[in-house]
């Protein structure tokens, strides 16, 4: 017997009520997630339509009371059905309610009215219009004459633009309308995120031989019976973007549609412009600054087949294309592809599922692939395609690692080492540009020694301890605590504490050290107002400044040909995050940062200042040696059972009542221990989450590790049920997260 969970009407608020129905024997083979079915509903058993959101071989309640569904509506799949099936998969995979999953996947139908746009058009032939214009001119109706002349040139004028640029008021236009010379029309227009109509069209560049070879490998994979996802591992500046463009073009020529995921931070005007230049009005762009209405319009256009390419961050993955042919994920390793709201999905994994469901291809690319993706490529689950040289064989930058402990010993207490200072001076003399960054955001709280460079770590988890308000040092994985120390336990030095300098201080130091230099700062504070981010980037691109200083946001994905020096002020900051992935993040960030230097015709240089110059993530980044980093890091993950060596599920709970939260988490931990006993699941915690308290809401977390993902899935499902039936958890908000 098969039982189907069915949601009756997804346009209503109470979306998450699903009802279970028996599936008739003859439909068992056919029924699938997301299908539209007819069911008897309510007391009157009126026939209604519903969506299948779950299938199971176990009844949720007494089957003598369960109704049987009538039939499957259409076997012809619609785009919406497929997206609902995707939502159902996400609900099961990541643990969330069906409403949350549906709201993530379907464009929310808000009460947004399509915006109307007014146009002025000529209502007479050219000769008559010429005559009219002449008459108006001699009759001193200058404004009206101007309008007619403008219409003679352009046929159709935007009403708002005309009134602004030609200084037309309604009193000018009105008489012309009354005499029937012009018409004012209204079209439904879409709210456009970027006006692409003025951007000149461009030809795609010719691929180089190496790029062509990579393209061929991808096409070869696509000829296979079941093509695998492709991972392009290409060094910075090797031309991955050029390859994506060819693949997009090819797919569009086949009559299919393309989704391109790009990290939000790289979705600059420059990037968008390039897409419009190549593909014109076939493209649309999403970003988080769009209003609900604008988003809705873009999805509507996609659904109607008016555009073929959607470019955007994570959420663009749910574009309702009906003939999806290709999904591209650029900078595959970026953290932002993982959602921090329930369902806490990962775009890579979800894209893989959607592509598989819709017979579309998936291509990912990065200079520093995530350990997850690279491991899959090594195991043959993904096809690995390599690009090992930069375009035109431009050399990778020369990298120097500066030991900050030595600087301190030599009496230099400044945040600029002597080498970095000299390097910046040289750039100023030559009229070249420098980028200096501090990878600081989100890494506060750790405690390290300025003499030996060591950070205090948890003896059980090998991640940095975090200093709490109560003065204690705590581990966010297992809850281990110790009192604060006055002296470094490794070398005895009293110079132990947190790193205090920020981008603002660095800016001040730069202004003082190089009084003639033009310095631009880009960080959270300077980019809060609308458009400021773009403004800083474009003024730096136009060489209106010599030095750009900021947080890691300045070294992600940009292409400034005049930059020949990149400096990491304190590379260790990200190494001390209380997170098992911190070495990976540090390596990725430094490699990407180094890769911003020397992209144009002039050779580049990079300087990495660090208290841990020998750390493998820093050494490997300096050599741009991904493979070496991968080997070391995988060994660590295997030793500690961290992903991708094992799977890790976290159970996050929050609540106002700290006692209740503690009790609830202890119950959960016990429950998990009990049901997972025979599988030997590694349970860690409960501990306070990395931000233990936000707005008076307390947060705790429990980690489960196991080699087999299905075991964790099973535990998650059972835990979800346990939480549902125990009223003690009602005042807690509990989420699951695969980290
Ligand atoms: N075939 C080509 N023809 C012309 N220019 C090219 C070609 N390939 C690459 N380039 C140029 O080289 C630079 C780097 O290329 P691109 O941005 O595609 O590299 P990437 O691999 O995506 O780099 P990153 O990972 O660092 O972002 C760009 O300025 C690009 O215009
Ligand atoms: Zn020390
Ligand atoms: Zn620990």
Automatic annotation (TrEMBL):
Pfam families: DEAD, Helicase_C, PriA_3primeBD, PriA_C, Zn_ribbon_PriA. It is an enzyme of class 5 (isomerase). Its EC number is 5.6.2.4. Its cofactor is Zn(2+). It comes from the Bacteria. Binds 2 zinc ions per subunit. It catalyses: ATP + H2O = ADP + phosphate + H(+); Couples ATP hydrolysis with the unwinding of duplex DNA by translocating in the 3'-5' direction. One of its GO terms (molecular function) is ATP hydrolysis activity. One of its GO terms (cellular component) is primosome complex. GO terms for biological process: DNA recombination; DNA replication initiation; DNA replication, synthesis of primer; double-strand break repair. Residues 221-387 form the Helicase ATP-binding domain. InterPro entries: DEAD/DEAH_box_helicase_dom, Helicase_ATP-bd, Helicase_C-like, P-loop_NTPase, PriA, PriA_3primeBD, PriA_3primeBD_sf, PriA_C. Keywords: ATP-binding, DNA replication, DNA-binding, Helicase, Hydrolase, Isomerase, Metal-binding, Nucleotide-binding, Primosome, Zinc. Zn(2+) 2 binds at residues 458, 461, 475, 478. Zn(2+) 1 binds at residues 449, 452, 488, 491. PANTHER family: PRIMOSOMAL PROTEIN N. Initiates the restart of stalled replication forks, which reloads the replicative helicase on sites other than the origin of replication. Recognizes and binds to abandoned replication forks and remodels them to uncover a helicase loading site. Promotes assembly of the primosome at these replication forks. Belongs to the helicase family. PriA subfamily. Component of the replication restart primosome. NCBIfam families: priA. This is Replication restart protein PriA. It comes from Blautia obeum. The gene is priA.
């Amino acid at each position: 017997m098969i039982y189907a969970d069915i949601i009756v009407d997804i346009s209503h608020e109470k979306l998450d009520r699903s009802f279970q129905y028996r599936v008739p024997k003859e439909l068992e083979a056919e029924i699938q997630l997301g299908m539209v079915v007819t069911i008897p509903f309510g007391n009157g058993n009126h026939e209604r339509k519903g969506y299948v959101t779950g299938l199971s071989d176990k009844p949720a309640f007494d089957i003598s009371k369960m109704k049987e569904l009538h039939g499957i509506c259409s076997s012809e799949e619609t785009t919406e059905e497929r997206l609902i099936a995707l939502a159902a998969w996400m609900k099961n995979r990541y643990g969330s309610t069906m409403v949350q999953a549906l709201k993530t996947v379907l464009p929310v139908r808000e009460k947004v009215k399509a915006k109307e746009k007014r146009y002025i058009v000529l209502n007479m032939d050219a000769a008559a219009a010429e005559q009219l214009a002449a008459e108006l001119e001699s009759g001193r109706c200058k404004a009206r004459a101007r309008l007619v002349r403008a219409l003679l040139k352009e046929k159709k004028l935007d009403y708002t633009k005309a009134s602004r640029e030609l200084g037309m008021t309604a009193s000018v236009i009105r008489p012309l309308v009354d005499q029937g010379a012009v018409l004012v029309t209204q079209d439904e227009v879409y709210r456009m995120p970027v006006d692409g109509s003025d951007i000149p069209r461009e030809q795609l560049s010719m691929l180089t031989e190496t790029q062509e070879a990579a393209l061929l490998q991808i096409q070869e994979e696509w000829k296979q019976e079941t093509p695998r996802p492709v991972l392009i591992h290409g060094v910075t500046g090797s031309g991955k973007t050029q390859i994506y463009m060819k693949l997009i073009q090819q797919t569009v020529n086949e009559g299919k549609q393309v989704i391109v995921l790009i990290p939000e931070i790289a979705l600059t005007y420059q990037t968008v412009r390039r897409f419009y230049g190549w593909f014109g009005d076939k493209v649309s762009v999403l970003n988080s600054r769009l209003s609900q209405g604008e988003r809705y319009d873009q999805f509507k256009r996609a659904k109607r087949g008016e555009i073929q390419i959607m470019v955007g961050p994570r959420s663009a993955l749910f574009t309702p294309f009906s003939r999806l042919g290709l999904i591209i994920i650029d900078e595959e390793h970026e953290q932002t592809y993982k959602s921090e709201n329930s369902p806490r999905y990962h775009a890579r994994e979800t894209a893989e599922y959607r592509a598989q469901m819709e017979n579309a291809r998936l291509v990912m690319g990065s200079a520093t692939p995530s350990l997850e993706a690279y491991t899959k490529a090594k195991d043959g689950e993904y096809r690995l395609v390599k690009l090992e040289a930069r375009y035109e064989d431009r050399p990778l930058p020369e990298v120097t690692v500066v030991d900050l402990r030595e600087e301190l010993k030599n009496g230099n207490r400044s945040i600029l080492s002597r080498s970095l200072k000299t390097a910046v001076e040289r750039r100023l003399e030559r009229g070249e540009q420098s980028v200096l960054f501090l990878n600081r955001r989100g890494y506060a709280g750790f405690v390290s020694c300025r003499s030996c460079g060591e950070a205090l770590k948890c003896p059980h988890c090998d991640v940095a301890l975090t200093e709490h308000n109560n003065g204690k040092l705590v581990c966010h994985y297992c809850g281990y605590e110790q009192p604060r120390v006055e002296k470094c336990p490794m070398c005895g030095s009293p110079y132990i504490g947190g790193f205090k300098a920020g981008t603002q201080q660095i800016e001040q130091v730069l202004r003082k050290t190089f009084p003639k230099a033009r310095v631009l700062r880009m960080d959270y504070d300077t980019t809060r107002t609308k458009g400021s981010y773009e403004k800083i980037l474009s003024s730096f691109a136009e060489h209106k400044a010599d030095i750009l200083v900021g947080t890691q946001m300045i070294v992600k994905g940009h292409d400034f040909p005049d930059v020949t020096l990149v400096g990491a002020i304190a590379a260790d900051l990200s190494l001390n995050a209380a997170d098992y992935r911190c070495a990976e993040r540090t390596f990725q960030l430094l490699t990407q940062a180094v890769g911003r230097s020397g992209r144009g015709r002039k050779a580049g240089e990079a300087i990495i200042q660090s208290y841990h110059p020998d750390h493998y993530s820093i050494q490997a980044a300096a050599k741009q040696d991904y493979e070496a980093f991968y080997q070391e890091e995988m060994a660590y993950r295997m030793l500690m059972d961290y992903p991708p060596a094992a799977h890790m599920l976290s159970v996050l709970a929050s609540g106002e009542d700290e006692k209740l939260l503690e009790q609830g988490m202890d119950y959960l931990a016990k429950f998990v221990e009990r049901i997972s006993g025979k599988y030997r699941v590694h349970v860690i915690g409960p501990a306070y989450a990395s931000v233990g308290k936000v707005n008076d809401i307390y947060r705790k977390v429990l980690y489960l590790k196991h080699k087999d993902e299905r075991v964790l899935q099973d535990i998650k499902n059972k835990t979800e049920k346990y939480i549902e039936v125990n009223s003690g958890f009602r005042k807690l908000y509990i989420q699951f997260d695969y980290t």
